[in-house]
Amino acid sequence: MTTRRRTLLSVSGIVAAVVLGAGLGAVTFALIDDGNTTVVRQVTVEGSQPVASGALSIAQVYDQASKAVVEIAASSGSTFGGQTSAQGSGFVFDRKGDIVTNQHVVAGASTISVSFWNGTERPAKLVGNDPSTDLAVIHVDAPASLLHPLALANSNAVRVGDPVLAFGSPFGLEGTVTSGIVSALHREMTAPNNYTITDTIQTDAAINHGNSGGPLLDAAGRVIGVDAQIESESGGSDGVGFAIPSNTVSAIVRQLVSSGKVEHAFLGVRMEPVSGGVAVTRVLANTPAASVGIRAATGTKLVDGQEVPTGGDVIVAFAGEPVTSAVALQSAVDAHRPGDTVSITIVRGGSRKTLDVKLGVRP
Question: Partner of 169 for a Cys bridge, out of 4, 174, 221, 260, CB 3.0 to 4.6 A?
Fold first, then answer.
């Protein structure tokens, strides 16, 4: 039986020097229907580049966005103890010099450097990182002429079939762009700390090692995601890539820029999908869920040949919105901040009940 592998795109962990390409490297172009307008509500980023309201050609998006994309080299360790090098990508977030990339690109790095579109290199320092979403922010002191921020789109408006462009430095070939479409939505990825990243975007745009942290853009040149992983039998690009959605990027990066750290909301349940909602299979001790008396299943029964949890609560709505899956509930919790009080509607013994719960901080 063939085993599929979900691969982090960084070359982090390889003890080797990264050989960088010269010039613009390999730039791949394909056709996008210029008449297929992508309508996306823009999330304003301070100092971001103006964007057109409709779809652009690949050449236009490249001209507009390429100056915002950077190559990142990170290393850790000492010369005598062996040095680990990683190479990835990132993009300028604001005119202050903050740059977004993947956490796994810069994790544990003792030195970080950034190469801009014109070959200029600058040392960078880590502002903060979040292993739960595989996002990080680094900072460079650079003149305004080098800082060209990209705008973030509303990833909730992205549709399957939308054209996309992936920017980055695969295998050190800086200035590379590949094209494709949104292949699927609401995929799950496993973060570096083994938490689940929900609502990720799947694309067939070719992405490879070194694309980590690079932006996935829509046809108007706005960021809809940050490339993070591929699923591959060979370890190379098989046309199944995954990006962290821009709405997650916006929420996490703003916290990192502001305080250097991120706090995630936490409910404290384990769950399984059932008809009409999600069944609570475990309530963790000393959590918000436990404090309001949410009950876990006490047994199971066979339904259509499958075991279904019984005897506990089924969560059917969160903050007034229907819960249709475990992923949907996790996404709803993630959209809030610790300390927020939200309503949770449960079905218990055939009766509906609404509880108000104050969300905690994910441990």
Answer: 174
Please give the Cα distance from 158 to 182 (Å, whole number).
8
At residue 304, the pLDDT reads: 87
CA 198 to chain centre: 9
pTM of the complete model: 0.78
Q: How many CA atoms lie within 13 A of 333 on its CB side?
A: 25
Kindly report the CATH number that applies to the domain delimited by 21-259.
2.40.10.120
Picking from 229, 89, 86, 200, the residue whose alpha carbon sits closest to that of residue 150 is 89
Active site residue 134: yes
CB 34 within 8 A of CB 57: yes
Q: Enter the tokens of residue 323.
A: 């819960």
Helices (H), the chain: 58-65, 103-106, 246-259, 288-291, 326-334
Q: In the CATH scheme, what architecture does the domain 265-361 have?
A: Roll (2.30)
356 is catalytic: no
Residue 246 is a catalytic residue: no
Q: What is the pLDDT of residues 278-313, one digit of tens each?
A: 999 999 999 999 999 999 999 999 988 889 999 999
Which member of 94, 130, 134, 162 is catalytic? 134
As a whole number of angstroms, the distance between CA 288 and CA 77 comes to: 41
Which tokens belong to 43? Answer: 């999330």
Domain-by-domain residue ranges, the chain? 21-259, 265-361
Question: Which stretches within 168-284 are classed as H helix?
Answer: 246-259
Which of 48, 212, 237, 331 is catalytic? The answer is 212
Give the β-pairing of 277-283 and 314-318: antiparallel
**How far is it, in rounded angstroms, from Cα 251 to Cα 137?**
12
- The catalytic position among 76, 94, 104, 155 is 104
